[in-house]
Amino acid sequence: MSEISKEQVKHVAHLARLALSDEEVEKMTKQLGDIITYAELLNELDTDNVEPTTHVLELKNVMRKDEPREWIKSEDALKNAPDKKDGQFRVPSILE
């Protein structure tokens, strides 16, 4: 990749809604250029026999299996409800 220009830095700063002074543009141009140069070193690595990965750590699901089972009956759930109507909990209205 070619060197990053001041115009590119200003364009990216504009897209990110950043107000950069001329001094900051100079500094960012050098820093971003250094980052790109360092990242280009990765192109020199031999990755022919390296299997692609999506995560560096092995991930596994720690959730329990979702299996149907007997659940509480609605009558039992409503047994201690302070206010109920038509088989449902009744709560105070929060909208006027």
TrEMBL record:
Gene3D superfamilies: Glu-tRNAGln amidotransferase C subunit, N-terminal domain (1.10.20.60). Keywords: ATP-binding, Ligase, Nucleotide-binding, Protein biosynthesis. The keyword Ligase applies. Its EC number is 6.3.5.-. Pfam families: GatC. It is an enzyme of class 6 (ligase). GO terms for molecular function: ATP binding; glutaminyl-tRNA synthase (glutamine-hydrolyzing) activity. It catalyses: L-aspartyl-tRNA(Asn) + L-glutamine + ATP + H2O = L-asparaginyl-tRNA(Asn) + L-glutamate + ADP + phosphate + 2 H(+); L-glutamyl-tRNA(Gln) + L-glutamine + ATP + H2O = L-glutaminyl-tRNA(Gln) + L-glutamate + ADP + phosphate + H(+). One of its GO terms (biological process) is glutaminyl-tRNAGln biosynthesis via transamidation. Belongs to the GatC family. Allows the formation of correctly charged Asn-tRNA(Asn) or Gln-tRNA(Gln) through the transamidation of misacylated Asp-tRNA(Asn) or Glu-tRNA(Gln) in organisms which lack either or both of asparaginyl-tRNA or glutaminyl-tRNA synthetases. The reaction takes place in the presence of glutamine and ATP through an activated phospho-Asp-tRNA(Asn) or phospho-Glu-tRNA(Gln). Heterotrimer of A, B and C subunits. HAMAP family: GatC (MF_00122). PANTHER family: GLUTAMYL-TRNA(GLN) AMIDOTRANSFERASE SUBUNIT C, MITOCHONDRIAL (PTHR15004). This is Aspartyl/glutamyl-tRNA(Asn/Gln) amidotransferase subunit C. It comes from Aquibacillus koreensis. The gene is gatC.
